[in-house]
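G., the chain you wanted modeled:
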Amino acid sequence: MSESARRPAPADWEPAENRVGLLDRRGLGLSIAAGAVAVFWAFLLPLIASAVTADEDIEAGTVLDIGSGATMRPAAGWILDEGAKAGERPPGSTGGPATTVVHNGAVTLTISGGTFGGDLSEFMDRVVELQQEEADG
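Predicted structure as tokens:
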């Protein structure tokens, strides 16, 4: 094939002398950035997560304070995400309603304390009423 019969090179063609490994110089910066993101997600993020996350396994018999004098006793193996064990509320807390969050696998329970203006009988009637509403859909 003669020199004059060659087709012109495409506009996006990069000659071999302008390449680094298998990458041309135009895409090298983007490739380095993508590699840095991959290293971050694969190695650094799990290290940060393990250093920051402090899951607290609940042992058998542990009592959690859900505020206003109410407590709960989850089964062993649940993990306390938010809240306090009985007797461990932070100084200056009012002892009023608090939120406690525990999880076990994919199940997460969020328990919030509150007040009820009636007596125990009225409270239980309201609980039964809510259960029936939930069952009826």
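Strands lie at 19-20, 23-24, 56-57, 64-67, 70-72, 79-82, 84-85, 99-104, 107-112.

Shout if anything looks off.
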